[in-house]
Design brief:
The chain is an alpha+beta fold. It contains two helices and ten strands; from the N terminus they run H-H-E-E-E-E-E-E-E-E-E-E. The protein binds FE2/S2 (inorganic) cluster (FES). The site of FE2/S2 (inorganic) cluster has 12 residues, from loops.
């Protein structure tokens, strides 16, 4: 009898202050609910926010016409467009090859636009000279803004014989 009293006395819980099992489970539950609430809030925010794809503008200012010498081809790398100034005026030609979409390069020594991928070649006005490209390089709408800068709209293709006279 006295042996059992001794044993149970040695296994009594400490009287030190600490976190009880109940408090621990409460905190775990509150934490889990908080995380679930944040996740739910994020899903609701995503559901109600507009499902819009933000793409760069298709219209851009190419600058003052005086920046482009007569009989010049200027490659605008960020827009992948050639601004061509001929004796008759301006036109904007796409630099994207009509074969498989490679970006072409202006070769002033040969006076032509060349595609590095499969060898298509084009005149400065975009007409195809040779290679697998099925079509000429398209011309984009080019106009003047009210303050006198060239404005190119890559969403509007125009006929190759339309030239902006400045
Ligand atoms: S992508 Fe230009 S020739 Fe093939």
């Amino acid at each position: 009898m006295s042996d059992t009293q001794d044993i149970s006395a040695t296994h009594l819980p400490d009287s030190k202050p600490g976190v009880s099992r109940r408090d621990f489970l409460s905190e775990i539950t509150i934490g889990a609910l908080g995380i679930a609430g944040l996740g739910g809030t994020a899903l609701i925010y995503q559901y109600f926010s507009p499902n819009v794809l933000f793409e760069p503008s298709t219209t851009f200012r190419a600058g003052n016409p005086d920046l482009f010498p007569v009989n010049s081809v200027t490659f605008l790398q960020d827009q992948q467009v050639y601004i061509v100034r001929s004796l008759t005026g301006f036109y904007a030609v796409s630099a994207v090859c009509t074969h498989l979409g490679c970006v072409t390069q202006w070769k002033p020594e040969a006076n032509r636009i060349a595609c590095p991928c499969h060898g298509s070649k084009f005149q400065p006005d975009g007409k195809k000279i040779e290679g697998p490209a099925p079509r000429p390089l398209p011309h984009y709408s080019i106009t003047l803004t009210a303050d006198g800068e060239l404005l190119v709209d890559k969403l509007q293709t125009i006929k190759a014989d339309q030239v902006l006279k400045v």
